[in-house]
Structures are given as structure tokens and as C-alpha cells.
Amino acid sequence: MNIINTRIQQLREKMKALKLDAYIVPSTDPHQSEYVCDYWKVRTYFSGFSGSAGTLVVTANEAALWTDGRYFLQVEQECAGTDVHLFKQVVPHAPEHIPWICNELAENAVIGLDYRQFSKSQIDYLLGFSTPKNIVLNHQPHLVNEIWTDRPALPSEKVKVHSLEFSGESTASKLNKVKAEIENQQADYYLLSSLDDIAWLFNIRSTDIDFTPLVTAYGVVGKEKSYLFSDTNRYSSELIEVFNTLNIEVLDYDLIADKLPELSKGKKIVTDAASLNYASFDAIEGEIIFQQSLVQQLKTIKNEVEIENTKKCMLKDGLAMTKFFMWLEDELKERAISEYEIGKKLTSFRKEQPLYKDDSFASIVGYQGNGAIIHYTAPEKGSAMVENKGLLLIDSGAQYENGTTDITRTVWLGGEVSEEIKTAYTSVLKGHIELDQMQFPKGTVGMQLDAFARMHLWKQGLNFPHGTGHGIGSYGMVHEPTQGFTSNMTTSRGAEAHKPNQFTTIEPGCYKKDTYGIRIENVVVSKVNEINDFGEFYGFEALTVFPIDTQLIDVTLLEKSQIDWLNNYHEKVYNTLSTKLKPSEKDWLKEKCKAL
Amino acid sequence: MNIINTRIQQLREKMKALKLDAYIVPSTDPHQSEYVCDYWKVRTYFSGFSGSAGTLVVTANEAALWTDGRYFLQVEQECAGTDVHLFKQVVPHAPEHIPWICNELAENAVIGLDYRQFSKSQIDYLLGFSTPKNIVLNHQPHLVNEIWTDRPALPSEKVKVHSLEFSGESTASKLNKVKAEIENQQADYYLLSSLDDIAWLFNIRSTDIDFTPLVTAYGVVGKEKSYLFSDTNRYSSELIEVFNTLNIEVLDYDLIADKLPELSKGKKIVTDAASLNYASFDAIEGEIIFQQSLVQQLKTIKNEVEIENTKKCMLKDGLAMTKFFMWLEDELKERAISEYEIGKKLTSFRKEQPLYKDDSFASIVGYQGNGAIIHYTAPEKGSAMVENKGLLLIDSGAQYENGTTDITRTVWLGGEVSEEIKTAYTSVLKGHIELDQMQFPKGTVGMQLDAFARMHLWKQGLNFPHGTGHGIGSYGMVHEPTQGFTSNMTTSRGAEAHKPNQFTTIEPGCYKKDTYGIRIENVVVSKVNEINDFGEFYGFEALTVFPIDTQLIDVTLLEKSQIDWLNNYHEKVYNTLSTKLKPSEKDWLKEKCKAL
């Protein structure tokens, strides 16, 4: 029997024994993380599907996997030969399986699930559908372990301090801001579940999750004493000592379950319903004040030290990209290279840079038509062979101890460029420039700004099916809340107003199935441009420093202001990178940065 | 004693007798109309304030008037010497008085109000605040009449058929669409409360409300039989006969109160909670299915006949504007003219055009700094004297039997133009052009498009504090739901996607207090531009035909595509209007339409 089917079979047997009519396996961990450590890859274990988003629902007759358009092809491949049945989500991340389950199940049915993997908000949503049919939820924290006997351990790597030199603000100072909010809410504690909130507040980093330097933990801030629930073996005695001086006690991760009822009894706790898991919610015995994460709001505004450090790490990233693209051009004269090898080689160039820790996500190296697959991953075996012709899209980034990068360039490797591609590329570039150089009043939200990145594509009858950009951390999450650019007003990336000193990506694109994929992405920092009688006006400044391929531009489509932008950008790129380059590299870069 | 204070005193005496602790007087009628007939000007009667938006709340100690920034000055003037106390609303139309009332009143207090003047949604909102304090609502349909003994009668003008020649769709055809929806909802009746929905569906017009050709009525559509509740004396026997053939019975307006319980008992009724008044809601004995007005959705898509007729009426409006502006230029050489006289004269030129019925709103004629008052009305006595220098803003429009117009032009009357004004004017014009010539995919909403009208102002550190445009009817409401352009996502103008064949205004502006007001407004129709692999793309076409003043333009700020747009527009204006003009008028227009 197929291994996945065996596992589903084992799950059904357990369900039967426990009188569960359905079991829900989500993709997340107890912290609502976007990416999770191996221990929490439960949905992958039971379905075979390894994508970042998707939910498996197992009933007596169905093994229903819900995911969105990015992953349909991947599910087809990874779940081939299994009983897993793909349900195509219309809206990514929407809980479209919930109405389905409650419709499938009979009255008084029982749904099993691990409360730790569901946020308070998600369970509330589920209850809205289940309650009218008297369908009951049943918390099962041990069921998975009983089946998955060789489940990987939780991360054990040492926890490192994110030093003041890079963070720009001490834990003491950050804690004081949270304590002020506790006072403000007339509360006693602030509970943090989100790993990136915890990493920021306590200035700690580790390697728990691929590409994301976070530490598995819960945090509780009190007016006097604070707690970090995390594997104590991972903390050096020096770090424990530092925390002690700040009145922070480190307790074992699992102790949260016992300590929460004790701490909260008769007290008021402020927390965020979107990241609080339902097991923690259940354990709180006091009053809860739900509030959008304050730490998220603080973290998204970068301080001067973070901005200066990110500029430094962008320089390093630009140097690595320069060396990599020089290598690629040279090598392609000799031989064809697989997309997979190109991705590995790019990582190797980044690794040479000081303070490099990891890539910030799995590089997307998409040649010709593969560039049109938005979340493409070149397979280790059998990926397309790149030659010195056609279009190559590379979306990549890294985690440096002094910042996080994310850059996409689409380059022409040789041969004749079609008018179609030139028009699409130039329109993407115009959209990128339009948004980069936009000035906008305080209060302008992501959905409004998103339109500027699309307008030149729209005028050509083109568009792209993804958001235009996301917040990005400082040696933190490559997709960091809250702001961004998207045409979806129901997400924070669409609805949040941009504020000064935030890091955001600008990444419009254009994709034609099996033909081409184009995307041009920089990270920008927002800033105050002017304050006058009409209000405060903000703008952006590009942080990413690497040339944008000019071979693909149809210059007749550019306005003078757009040509000026590109020439100024390339002048800045050259001036920033060239001092750190060897003569031959300088020459190469000079050519790439030549004014239009 | 001041007359207003006397009325408030009389109201307080009645309230005391009826044991009411507060009485709420809103600005609307039983149909949630934006403008109301004299009979329903109850808030004006009790407060003295005549603006279109505002709510008076009378308690034993307070006469609190809530209105927004457009009207602060007007309230100061109109309510001077009275006990009326202005409460400044932060958000226009927001029910900010509701929390205030429920905070002021003690537990178990009683609020009096006429349920007919409140929508179901508004009462639900009020109950949300009143219920926790056990504050009770008390319906008072007769109280106002007992005080306001010389209250004007309801409108009595004959009802006219809006003929097929202008409407482009028969009542029978429209009724069938509503009946299909009744079937679709497995319901029995469709109840209409909104006067413009009723005027559209039954193809009727009259003069009940200033500037708006609507008929006071309720409509009920049944699968077999339909009803129009409206003053039967206003309907000719021929019209009654026509309605009879369509199985529509006309019953007296007040009969709705008796007939609704009878018709609805044991039945399902579809209606719109936003326009259904609470008295009607209370009278329904069957099941109610709430739904955003279907008729509103149908009405906003114009048919070919309506589009062709609107083009014809835009031509007439352009001719009237041409004759008017020629007169104004000539006359200003001789004498200064008051803003008020200019407004009257403009109306007189429009009246000369065939099928003219009324102005579509009170013309805004704002000279120099008065142009900065967005809802300015020049007073009959003492309005500013316009001379042949400086800036004049005129926002005006008309109701013709074949369409509705709304146009704003800002013109330079002579003297030196400052750089500041040229920059602001050119930026407004660029925003207007940007939105007019935008192409956008299906699904794009008003909030996204709004940004294009602002971007060039933003880049200059400028902005304007109002929406960029609104839907407009076809011999209907000058502000017609649902679509529009605004940066507020909580309104339908921000949240609704634009669809082909809708009429919308584009009217960006720029205002500096006491200095200048600039606005450039056209009506546009939306259309399908192209359908390709990337989806459906829509665009706009200007319907308004009248030159845009080029004296105020700083040509160095315009891109070539913007100059092309303006030259093409002026060519179209000249070609459209000139065939109907006398030689001297043609010459005048030719000069105004000269290419840049």
C-alpha cells in the first residue's frame, strides 16, 4: 500500500477508536507560523503534499486536501497514487474547507483536532458553522504522535542574541513599550504567541525554521516579571543571566500549559486572537483583552540602526549577485546549466559574504516558461537546462545577521527579443518605477498604492495574479506583517496605511503560461518626503542595489521621468557596489549600469 | 422668543407629556432620500439649519445638531441666536449622535422618533447602543404634525411617464427582471422604498424634490400582481390604464401601512435594509430576505438608448455652457457681476435648451477664495462680485428629459496667473486625464481608480478632501448609487467594481482656504476596451462636451500623452458643438478648443 494511504488508514483507525467523524490537519504550528519546523509538518506527513499552505481533512470516506492555485500542479505530482483528493481553493488562505466539513458531517458529529495548531479566530470561525448542527470539537494533542512514531524532534540549536549593533533597540526598551501598553489597558500580562514577535521583543534568533531565524517559544510580559517558554537547554548561562537582570525567567516550552492558568487567574491578559492558539486560549483562566499585535506594529517600524544595517546587507547582496551573474554569463558561453545548479551557485556566492546565515527562501530560478510558474521550485533532478538565449527569472534572497534581502531580476540571456516580451517587461518596469517614486499622503493604504504598479500593464491589456509586495523583516521574516501592496482590501497588506521607516518589497510581474515570466523586485524603505498645508506626504527609497536588465526595455514606451529614474538608480547601484569590486567586475557592472 | 427656540420648547412640552427623554429628528424622508420635499424638512423646521445632512437630537436640556465639516459655517449662520448646539461630526453621514444619546440618557429612558424616517439598518445600529441600557424606542408618527400646524402638503404635481424613447426599456421588461429575482429567491414579493429605484422600475417622473425628478411612492412587485403606493390623484386615467395592463395597481400612499401586513402574511418578501424604513419593517408580517437593492444594480447599467440620449443632452448642455461663458466674458468687460446673478444666468441659458426640466442641483459659483468652499452656495444678497480677473469655479448641471448633466469648469478671468495656481490646476487636470484614459481589469473598484486622479497632485504635495466622482442617473438622481471613486473603502463608491455602461463623474480638485478652488469635472461612460488572455479590460469615454480652460495650464508639467488627450478632447468638443452654433459662437469655441 502507498505510504500515504497507510498513514491515512492509521489515522482513520485512531479516529474510529476515539469516535471522531473527521480530523483536521492544518499546515501551521502552535504559533501560526507561515513556515514550520519539521516537527510540525503534520499535513505533509499525512498527505505527501509539501507546499506551505493547505489543509487536510480526513473523514471515514474522504481525504480532502484544500489548497490554492499556486499548488495545484504540485499536489497532482506529490499526491499521485494516493487517496488524497484535491479541493481547489478559490481564495488563498481562506478556510473554504470549514463549510464543506460542516456540510458533510451529520448532526452531533465530532471533529478531532489539535487545538495548538488553530488560532482562537480560526476556532471561532469553525464554531460558527459547527454549532448550528451541534457538531462538537475534540482536542487531540497526542493522536498524531501515536501514529507518527519517528516524528522529528523540536529544534535544539543554541539560541543567539540579536545584538544591539544590529537590532538598534534593547530588550529592556522594547519591554518598556509593551509594559506601557499593559498599563494603558489596565491589564496584568501581555501574551505573545507569534515567533517573530518573540524574536523581535527578546532580541533572540536561531535556526528553527528553514530560511527564518526564529526561536520556538511563547512570551509573557508582566508589569514586573516576564517569561519566555522555550527549551531551556538552548540558552547559554550568560543569556539566562542577561534575561535575569531584565526580570525575564526562561521556563521550558511545554510549561506554558501549566503556567498560563496559574498566571492568568483573576488577572487581565492582552493578546492577539490571530496568533493565540486555542489550547492557550483554553488555558487562560482570567479575562482576555484581544488586540491586534502591538509588537507587530512596533516591529514594522524600523529604527535607524536597522535601516543602516539593511543598507549594508543590501550592498553585500548586490556584490554576491554581481559575482553570480558574471559567473552565469561566462559559464553559459561554455555549457548549458540546470536551473537547480544555478540556484545552488547563487547561494554559494551569498555564503561568501560576511554575516550570511541562510537564504531567506528557496530561490526561484525559472527559465523561459518556468518563469510563469509563480512559486516555481526547480527540482534537484531534471530541471530545465538554461542556455545562452531567452529569458531567466531569478527570485532569491538571504538572511544576514544585519538584515534580510529579497530580490527578483529577469534577464535576457541572448537571441532575438520579441516585441511581446519587450512590451510586457517595459510595462512591469514602468509599474515598478511608478510605485517606487510615488509620493502619497499619510493614511494611504496598500490597495491604493498597488494600483500604481499595475497601471502601465493594464494599459497594455496585461496584469499579474499576485500582490505587488510585502513587508520584510530585519534578520527576521521575509514576509513580515503588516503592510504591503495588494488589490485585496480584506488583507492587512491591502488595508494597512504605509508609515515611514517600513521595509516593503515592490515586485510587479507579468506571466504567460508556458512562454515567459517577468518580475522586477526591490526592497524599499518608506520615508517622510514633505509636510505642508495639505498634510504629510511619504515616499519610498530603494534599498536593493543591483542593475535591472536594460536589454529587454522598449525605450519608446518610457516617459522621460522613467528614464531618469532608471539612470539615477543605475548610477547609485554602480557607485554603491563598484568600490568593493575588482576591476573586471567593475567593468561588467559599468556596462550593466550604462545610462539609457 | 426666537422662533426656533419656540419650536424646540413646543417639542419639549410634547416630549414631557409623552414621557420621552429624547427625540431624534433626522434629515431624511421615509425613502432615505438624499434631498427631500418640503413636507419632510422637519429638521430644518426645528433647528433652522437647511443643509442636506444633519441630525437634531432634543433632550430636556440639549438641542444637539450633528453635521459635518461642509456645514459648520452654515450652522453658525442659520442657527445664530437659537439654543441649537452644533456637534461637529468627524465622518460625514456617520451616526455619531447615537453613542452620544445613549451615553447622555439614563437607564430605561425613552427615545421618541418617527420610524418612517429611519431605515431598518439605522434602527439596528441604534438598538446596539440603546439595548444594553434598556433604553426604549417609541414610534411617534403624529407628534411633528401636532406642533407643525402649517406643515406643507406632500407633492401633488402630475406624474409623467418616462417614455421608452428615453428610458430604452419598458416597465414590463424591467418588472420581469425583478420577478425573476423573486423566483430566484423563492420569495413572493419585492418591496421597493427608494424613490429612484421606483422611478426607474415604473418609468415615472415628477417634480417632488428640488433638482430630482422623482415621485413619492412605495413599490411592491409580486409574481402576478404589483402595487404602487402613491397619491392616486397624481396619475392620469391613461397612466392608470397602462399600469392595469401590466397588472400594477396604484393605491394611495398611506395605504402601504395597511396593505403591507396583509400582503406579507405567511409570505417571503425581498427588500433592501438600507432603504426600507423601520415603520415598513415593523408592518411586515412574513419572512424578510434582505438583499442589496437589485433595482439599484440594474439601474446603474445604462442601456444603449440611455447612452445615446445622454450624449444628446450633453451636447445641449455644452451649447448652453458655450452661450453662457460667451455672455460672461462679454459682460465682465462692462461690469462686475455677483456670483448669485451668474448662477441664475447659467440656469436661464440651460432653460433655452429643449427638454430642459430643472437644474440637477444648486449651481456652485465660487469666485477666488469662495471656490475653496466645496459646497458653496452664493447667497441671493451680498454674494461676491466677480470681475474680469482671477479664478472662477462653476459646478452646475441640469435635468433634461433625456438625461442628467453635472459639469465643473474652473476658468481664469484675467490678470497674471500665479505659479502656485498653474501647478495646482495642471495637477488637477493631469489627474482628470489619468483617470479618464485609464484601462483597468474587470473587478477594479472605485478606491483603486480614485488613486489615479490624485497621483499627480500627491507628487506636488497637494490633495483634495472629497471623493473623485459619483454615479449619475439618466433623468434621475445626480448622485446615483452604486459606483464612484473615493479613497473610502467602507462606501459603495470605494468598494464597488466598475462595470461597462455606467455613468460616473470624474472630478478631482484642489483647494486652498481663502485663496483658490479648482475642480475639473466631466461625466464619463464606462466601456469594454479589450478582452484577451489576461481578462476583460474596461475604460471610460467622456460624455461631457465643453472646453477645459488652457490658460491655467503649465505645459511643461504635461507628458505628451496628456497633451494628446487634451487636444483630442478639444477636437471632439469643437466637432460636436460647432455644427449647432452661430458663426460668432463657433469662433469663440474654436479659440477655446485650440490645440496645445
UniProtKB/TrEMBL annotation, chains A, B:
Pfam families linked: Creatinase_N (PF01321), Creatinase_N_2 (PF16189), Peptidase_M24 (PF00557), Peptidase_M24_C (PF16188)
Family statement: Belongs to the peptidase M24B family.
Domain of life: Bacteria
The protein, known as: Xaa-Pro aminopeptidase
UniProt cross-references to CDD domains, sorted A to Z: APP (cd01085)
Domain Creatinase N-terminal, chain residue ranges per copy: 7-125
GO CC terms in record: cytoplasm
Sorted UniProt keywords: Aminopeptidase, Hydrolase, Metal-binding, Protease
Gene Ontology terms, MF aspect: metal ion binding; metalloaminopeptidase activity
Segments forming domain Peptidase M24 C-terminal: 536-596
Cited PANTHER family: XAA-PRO AMINOPEPTIDASE 1
Span of domain Peptidase M24: 310-525
Keyword Hydrolase in annotation: yes
